[in-house]
Amino acid sequence: MLSGFKEFIMKGNVMDLAVAVIIGAAFSKIVNALVENVLMPAISAVVGSPNFDTFAVVSLRGNDLKFGVLLTAVVNFLLIAAAVYFCIVLPMNKMIERRNRRMGITPTEEPADPQTVLLTEIRDALIDRGTTTPAEGRHSGPTA
């Protein structure tokens, strides 16, 4: 039983997942610091408020519907997503692209779906025969 557990724990994907969770948790502090201390104050300087919590509050039978709180959450999500993309994903992709170019690795294109190729050939043949136009995409004969 213990040897099976040891084998499970030592599998590469379990260890990779554990490392990813730990690094993700540590990196979330960096992203949150960027959003809370740089981006949100910049928005606050432009909009005049650090959040939209008091925006679009509607009272319904004594209960407040706070649409601004939802808007704040959406803006925070978009800021975090943008920070992750522009500060992590984009630079990492560029770095991988440069490394691959330096190593002479060229990306391979996936083969096109045979059905898509056939439909494209049929479309092009119809355009060449003059029965359709690319803009219309239908027969150019008389309409009823």
Short description:
With 144 residues, the chain is mainly α. It is built from four helices and two strands.
Folded structure, characterized:
The protein has helices at 2-9, 12-47, 67-103, 114-129; strands spanning 57-60, 63-66. The chain is built from 4 helices and 2 strands, in the order H-H-E-E-H-H. The radius of gyration is 27 Å and the shape is extended. Helix 2 (12-47) crosses helix 3. With 144 residues, the protein is mostly helical. Strands 1-2 form a two-stranded antiparallel sheet.
Descriptive labels:
mainly alpha; 144 residues; two-stranded antiparallel ribbon; 6% strand; 67% helix; 2 strands
Poorly predicted sequence stretches spanning 5 or more consecutive residues: none
- N- to C-terminal distance: 77 Å
The biggest sheet, with number of strands, parallel, antiparallel or mixed sense and barrel status, is: 2 strands, antiparallel
Strand order of the largest sheet: 1-2
Give average pLDDT, whole number. 81
Overall geometry comes to extended
Relative helix content: 55-70%
What is the H-and-E element order?
A: HHEEHH
**Rg, Å, rounded:** 27 Å
Question: Number of helical segments?
Answer: 4
> How much of the residues is beta strand, in percent?
5-15%
* Number of beta strands: 2
Structural class from helices and strands? mainly alpha
